[in-house]
Design goal:
Elements: H1 2-17, H2 23-30, H3 34-41, H4 51-64, H5 70-77, E1 82-87, H6 90-95, H7 97-112, E2 116-121, H8 128-138, E3 144-147, H9 156-163, E4 167-172, E5 182-186, H10 188-197, E6 206-211, H11 214-229, H12 234-237, E7 238-243, H13 253-263, H14 265-268, E8 273-276, H15 279-291, E9 301-303, E10 322-324, H16 327-342, E11 349-353, E12 355-357
Parallel strand pairs: 1-2, 1-3, 3-4, 4-5, 5-11, 6-7, 6-8, 8-9
Antiparallel strand pairs: 10-12
Helix pairs in contact: 2-3, 2-4, 3-4, 7-16, 8-9, 10-11, 13-15
Length: about 350
């Protein structure tokens, strides 16, 4: 009898799944109102229901394969339930593990709010790619937008301003922040902690080993400014040793830094502390110095940036002392600001501070 009933129930569910059910039909099947079903299926309102009620409704919806139409929901509310991230150099940005992490975490947090992330790629002004992005923006492809100052090129910023769409900007320390809402990445406290841990007798034996770029110049300026704030003469304490890169792909920094460190081993051996612009560079320097007979963490200190070794699949035993940009917190706050602005609330600028992580190399 039990087997027969189960077979009959499965047959009914099979018939139901062959047609598109409506919200009111789901409500009737669950013995609740349509608004209750709507709340249960919306991550932003499910907390208004008891856990027992929401689980019962979700279980029913899963069995019959029902989810509300986003198109219908958008028509009713005037929203797309999408947030667009604007990228200018997509290959470079998504190869950079910091931005990669921010993108992945932002997507995850947005899903908790019932939104999805869309990537838009800008290009040089007047190109087909640029024109298409402009068309997307003027067509209101998303309810809100995420970008960094460098990504707001061409007429993108003007279009967003005219649309009055919420815009959240991620800005690094030292870059002019001309926007009212966004996340400011600050390394000041982490740099301060590093300086306080460096023995005074090492001042003058600190090397800033970096690639040649405006970003690295800005990073050195921030490091130096922190030193000056602590009463340390940065010009005497730190020497810069830049090298030219052949590739713009971040993942290639390791090989290039390793090669350059081997090539400049005599120069590097004069320093007791090597402050690198990224973990890729720091790991390349570390391996080159080990091969030359130096022992990172003992007779030479090495510091990176980005906490690369905790990136999924990179290392089970991180050894590199580094500075983490706290990308998860950046993404979390991006989404909080977006949701506030979509509700018509004031958001302003939120500062996310980097963290110094001490491991075996320093």
């Amino acid at each position: 009898m039990h087997a027969l009933a189960f077979k009959k129930s499965s047959h009914i569910v099979s018939i139901i799944m062959q047609k598109k059910l409506t919200l009111s039909e789901i409500a009737t099947m669950a013995g609740v109102t349509s608004s209750t079903v709507s709340r249960a299926l919306n991550p932003a309102t499910v907390h208004l229901l008891s856990r027992k009620t929401s689980e019962r409704i979700l279980s029913l919806c899963d069995r019959v394969g029902y989810r509300p139409s986003l198109l219908a929901r958008g028509t009713a509310t005037g929203r797309t339930y999408k947030v667009a991230m604007i990228l200018h150099s997509m290959e470079k940005d998504l190869n950079a593990h910091d931005w990669n992490r921010i993108t992945c975490a932002t997507s995850a947090f947005l899903q908790e709010y019932g939104y999805s992330l869309v990537l838009l790629r800008t290009s040089a002004k007047g190109t087909p790619m640029d024109i298409q992005v402009s068309n997307f923006l003027m067509s209101s492809i998303a309810d809100a937008y995420i970008a960094s100052p460098s990504m707001l090129q061409n007429n993108t910023s003007d279009i967003l301003h005219n649309l009055k769409s919420p815009l959240v900007v991620i800005c690094e320390q030292g870059v002019p922040f001309q926007f009212s809402d966004g996340v400011l990445r600050s390394d000041a406290d982490a740099f301060r902690e590093v300086w306080l841990r460096i023995p005074r007798d090492m001042h003058g034996k600190i090397c800033f080993f970096s690639t040649m770029s405006n970003d690295q110049d800005r990073l050195l300026n921030n490091i130096s400014q922190t030193a000056w704030d602590l009463g340390i003469d940065a010009k005497k304490a730190v020497s810069s040793l830049p090298f030219e890169r052949n590739s713009k792909v971040p993942a290639m920094e390791y090989a290039e830094a390793y090669h350059q460190a081997k090539k400049r081993s005599k120069s590097l051996n004069k320093f007791d502390f090597i402050w690198c612009t990224s973990d890729f560079v720091a790991l390349g320097v570390r391996d080159a110095l080990i091969e030359s007979g130096r022992h990172p963490g003992k007779d030479v200190f090495i510091l990176g940036y980005g906490d690369l070794e905790t990136f999924p699949g990179v290392s089970e035993n991180p050894v590199l002392s580094t500075i983490s940009a706290n990308t998860n917190e950046i993404a979390r706050n991006i989404c909080k600001i977006i949701m506030r602005k979509l509700k018509g609330e004031q958001a302003n600028i939120i500062t996310v501070k980097s963290t110094f992580i001490a491991r075996s190399t320093f």
